[in-house]
Amino acid sequence: MIRRMVPQVSIREEVMFKEAHVPWRREMVVEVFKSFAKDGQLSKHELKAAFDKLGSRWSTFRAWRALSYADANQDGLISNDHEFKALVNYALECGYEL
């Protein structure tokens, strides 16, 4: 009887991948927030959804903090260019990664 030689592959063999930490670029963060600003403004609920998209573990907290940080006229919305820029800066400071 002739036995075929079959290579043995161990289940323990693992392929190691180097983990890459790639931060969100400003342009990408801007696009995420714009995609949730259907009426040109961002509410707390829209901010929460945007922070979910960015990968936040605490999106409700981040939405609240973002409004505290960026909502200059305190109307509960990110509603002008100045506030939007402050919001993007806040999100970038959070250090989200792709």
UniProtKB/TrEMBL annotation:
Gene3D superfamilies: EF-hand. SUPFAM superfamilies: EF-hand. This is EF-hand domain-containing protein.
